Amino acid sequence: NSQPILANKSQMLGMPQFGLRDNLIKCELLKNEDAYTYIKNYSFFLGTYNVNGQNPKESLSPWLASTATPPDFYLVGFQELDLSKEAFLFNDTPKEPEWMLAVYKGLHPDAKYALVKLVRLVGIMLLFYVKAEHAAHISEMEAETVGTGVMGRMGNKGAVAIRFQFHNSDICVVNSHLAAHTEEFERRNQDFKDICRRIQFRQDDLTLPPLAIMKHNVVLWLGDLNYRISDLEVDHVKDLIAKKDFETLYNHDQLKRQMDEEVVFVGFTEGEIDFQPTYKYDTGSDQWDTSEKCRVPAWCDRILWRGKNIKQLHYQSHMTLKTSDHKPVSSLLEIGIKVVNEESYKRTFEEIVRHIDRMENDCIPSVSLSEREFFFQDVKFMQHQAKTVSVYNDGQVPCQFEFIPKLDEPTYCKPWLTANPAKGTSVDIDLEVFVNRSTAPELNSGQQQLEDILVLHLERGKDYFISVTGNYLPSCFGSSLSTLCLLREPIQDMPLETIREYTTNHRSAFTEEMRMKIVFDFWHTIVKLLTISVLQEELFQQPGLRGEFEEIRDCLDTGSLDTLPGSNHSVAEALLLFLDALPDPVIPFSFYPQCLDCCSDSSRCRQIISVLPQCHKNVFNYLIAFLQELLKHSAHNRLDVSILGRLTIHIHCLFLCTLSADLESAGQFQTQRFILHKTHSVLSEDEQNGK
Length: 691
Known about the structure:
The chain is of the alpha+beta class. It has 25 helices and 22 strands. The chain has a six-stranded mixed β-sheet. Mean pLDDT is 85; it is low at 1-18 and 652-691. Its EC number is 3.1.3.36. It is found in: Cytoplasmic vesicle, Phagosome membrane; Early endosome membrane.
């Protein structure tokens, strides 16, 4: 139909005349995009500032209005906006509007700007402003956040991100705050990879799969990346800075080394650094850190980009701002944006429609699969495995496939299996197997096996069947306490029939000796923590390394317990994951109503503990003893009752009223009643969801 077209591609593609051929035409339009678009340059101001929990005390104009002409876009990121425990617990802070107002007042005075989006996770905030005349050309705006703290859930570290379409270019902007400390560069690498993997943007067309960060034409990444200067003493670093020998200093920069080795930020570019490190200063001055720790200066605050037609006009720090122990950084980028020529688009569109009409009249869809049977060997708890099936279009017309549910089944696959993408055109499909806390219990007990049949349906064509099987190695993670108490050998040495019998008939199988037995895997992990880590700072607050957790899991599951591997943080996180994966928590679900009734009476709480199943009571008492031991050394490990109490909310494994009764001997649990009500609401929601 020869109707007037719109400059916004998403609106054009939503017109009703596309019908069932919508995805096919989209694909062809993308292939021929150069035929109906041209490049036009726009200026993007990117800024990052770690404000160390301070209030805005000075004008931000020297930073935000430092360009000769007003930029078209502002993308301004903050870290450590609020360091209070209230902000960490409730994700709410009065400092958000204060800094938002300071930014608005600091924008370039020669243009009018509109706020497009604000997104915040605890202290990580991203503001997006645009010149008013460009706002109408922005569409498909989405925002996501991801925490990379303990268990990948805490928001003191992580990222916030936005994505949008400007004219015909897809743009993604990420503001991140990665793990601290000089020696933790591998954890920073892991944070970067987790952010890239976990941030998925919903598309306006809900039939399309989510968009990952790297699926955009342009990716802009800013923030306190926390990469430090390695292998140089602090005095040598300061001497190089005084000589302005930034080239020598940059050769020792951790981010440069990791990028050179293609470990992180592959395909990204960073401009030349010709300014002194932006961290760490005494607050309110330009003087390097004079505290007892005397931090080595470092370029923690960075701005990088990925994509074509991008030119950096400046990259600099702003030394006049002294509010924080960091200095703000800015980069002005000139980015070539794809703009639609309406007449060219109309001609291209009509040619594509005529071509598809001819093909549809000639043929029906057909594909061939590279394989139809897949076997996953030795699948383990929380260890990802993937295999690829290639879908080749061997017909003469474009085709659309989709995995569909089998008869009387709600989803197209078992919960431990994912096909990515689940719909599309000719493509490589990743079949991913991942066993987590929700799927491990039935696999451990043998009630479920790694067996499934996927039905790949071809639109206007036939169905194809893909067989997925594998063998799962049982794990103490996801096994019940009662089952683990009965095991005389490592779980992976036990016959599956025996594990199934213990799971279904554990009450009758108990002997008196077993009733007094504490779960050995749990006990061994606690002992490891108790003996070597009671003085460890930030225990249960710093995440462990993925590889070390896998070693700890294998050690527990195979009985190689002479030397439990991993750092203190990795062992601590393994303990949390163990508790989180229990099918029935330490305080069983059936006891929750009683716990709610006696939340303010510690003696009644102790009565409830006394009637718990013996193995649950043993674990509870041992865990409480361990937590009390940690609190005895709070002057060294900086843990308090509030931190440990909040931690139990996140793992849903210890009911807080009973926990508080035993912790009161080591510290006053002042927030007991409030957290209790929070937990009650969580439990009520879980019951509604049938958990």
